[in-house]
Design goal:
The protein is mostly helical and about 130 residues long. The chain has helices spanning about 5-10, 25-35, 40-45, 55-65, 70-85, 95, 100-115, 125-130, and strands spanning about 15-20, 20-25. The chain has one domain (about 1-130). Strands 1-2 form a two-stranded antiparallel ribbon. It is globular.
Amino acid sequence: MFAAYPPALIRLYARRRNGRTVEAITAEEIAITSGIPLDRVQQISMQTNWDDISLMEVQQFCVGAQFDPTSSRDRNRERAYNLKCKQNRPRFQWLKRHPRFESEFRPLIVALMTSPQASSRFSQAPESRTTN
């Protein structure tokens, strides 16, 4: 199950609702919530698989990112979002508006899309769909 949700993808789905809008959770917030040092959160975020990450860090990272791959609610949220994206809607739109999109989120998207484990769900790379 976790293979379908690599750390970079979970990091991209790390978001919260703020009224009617959605905002990305920062790496700093993940670090504080999870108890993982910020530099380690950044390292984990760039991974395209869980191979070198301890089970404790996997659990802490998912808690900090507020996305649990074992939760049907979170998986359904991700599936619904992917369904919208397959209807030719831009992927990760809430991230595009984030001031750290270019420095923090675009590298995650690129790493995820260029990884050997890239899922067929990303047949069209989001980085090309989220640019102006």
